[in-house]
């Protein structure tokens, strides 16, 4: 007989332990062990426990293990979360099997020895078969579903609790999330606000509700929201820093003339554009969308153009706003020199378009739905033993669960958008369809995006400054890992699993639209490196940039109205405080929006910051060293960003690595 020493590490998360019996079968190149009960094994939370398994002969090189945990009639049946199993052979070779998933009662689950292998590295039929079987099972567990025409496919599920347990929220996350939702709704109901369809009578009444939940920055926004500089600042460092671009010529449909612009020291538009001082935000993506109705009332959604000027003191200021795309007599160009309420009303209408463009395009589509595509394609096409599975799986944590919740509670037929915003109903899928068609691969890669928008040297653009640093750090890390596993372009081309992964992303995510520029296959190591960098950046940094400030900038409703109840003014001199209050969302829409934005801006206590890999999927030294190095580099960047922020009136914190979650999880 020969003895194998089996050490089992049970995870430290709540409910990770089990009282059920655990069995193991070891499979090697020279044979397999019997399915053996690990009789003396301790499987309580956080435990490390060792048992001996005897076999008649050596099993050769260990390739895989099977773990199972049958229902126990004498005790409750509870899931178990082992982190890894280490096995010392009779020859003192140590094999590590990463697990990092829940084991429920039922069929045995197979786990491979931890050395990363691409499909053509599999030298033994045991590994080849296990690989095939794993992907067959995963393709059954994670099926594609079509959500709506023109919209990326989603995971097939009927709510988050029907998802495989491996991708659901942890107990901690689920409990906290539910508590925040319930507490928010109860509070609103008690106050009688959640169902009150009346208009606000004055801004002070909004203030009474707002002060139940505020952040230092949301207080600041409430104080300064009417000021032009804060209106402009948000295009750079607010929740949607992706729309603004520098222009050298005015769009033909935005006929601003020199005599409209009265700024001291301003030469003329032509010269200012030539010198690179003029910027544009164009919401043309929303053109032709019919706004939704709320409580039987037609809502209004404008499609504005905003012109901005960078002054000699480097401050960006809005200089003209046109609320509809086609120039016309009844579509005036509003100016800072107009009456207080004309100009303020124009800015509020822009902010209402911004609510839609930000939430549906910049946030939902370009981070949540894309991250889901990356995750489902990964789960269906790459087995656990694949080096890119090990690299990317931490960046998919909770994404399918939060998106299923969003489909039920936010964008579904009975969700928030349909009930409370101008962009609900048919408008929603049309906006997503149009937004998807206009996505480009370059716009998902921040260095290309900044170049294409000609935003390289605009001052005080912290999203760009921090985002580019993050991109470079992630790129270097990904490059290190990929170059360790892929020594030539030929190896990339031969990796059929990676080719299917990108093929599915192109087909199911980008609906095979070639104008997006999304790769349909990979030919070279640099191509693969850039794409994987983009996947990690989108799922972590880009999401943090567009998610973190939702309450800071949106909690004070007049700065972020979810809908407009009246059409935009068709001539100047027709606005007042009364028309503004009648146009802004009513009480119930306001408080429901505040509750949602509050919930979506919360940090969970089991938040995993960018670059922190708590689960050891890699067992080889090089990728583990690269993971440690990227975490250290991100910690350094956090210090630099904090130092910079100390000198800022508004600290830009959303891309501080400590605030960037590893995945789209909220
Ligand atoms: Fe989010």
Notes on the structure:
- The protein has helices at residues 125-141, 171-190, 203-210, 216-224, 228-237, 269-274, 340-381, 387-392, 399-409, 416-420, 426-438, 441-444, 446-452, 462-485, 489-494, 496-509, 525-547, 550-554, 577-583, 587-600, 621-646; strands at residues 2-10, 23-28, 31-32, 36-37, 48-55, 62-68, 82-88, 94-98, 109-112, 144-145, 154-155, 245-246, 278-282, 293-294, 297-298, 305-310, 316-322, 333-334.
- With 666 residues, it is of the alpha+beta class.
- The chain has 2 domains: 2-114, Lipoxygenase-1, CATH 2.60.60; 137-243 and 356-666, Lipoxygenase-1, Domain 5 (Lipoxygenase-1, domain 5).
- The strands form 5 sheets. Strands 2, 3, 4, 6 and 9 form a 5-stranded antiparallel beta sheet that branches.
- Strand 10 (144-145) and strand 11 form a beta hairpin.
- Helix 7 runs antiparallel to helix 16 and helix 14 (462-485) runs antiparallel to helix 17.
- The longest helix is centred in the middle third of the chain and has 42 residues, at 340-381.
- The radius of gyration is 27 Å and the shape is elongated.
- The protein starts with a strand and ends in a 20-residue tail after the last helix.
- The mean pLDDT is 94.
- Bound molecules: fe (ii) ion.
- Fe (ii) ion (FE2) is lined by residues 363, 368, 543, 547, 600, 666.
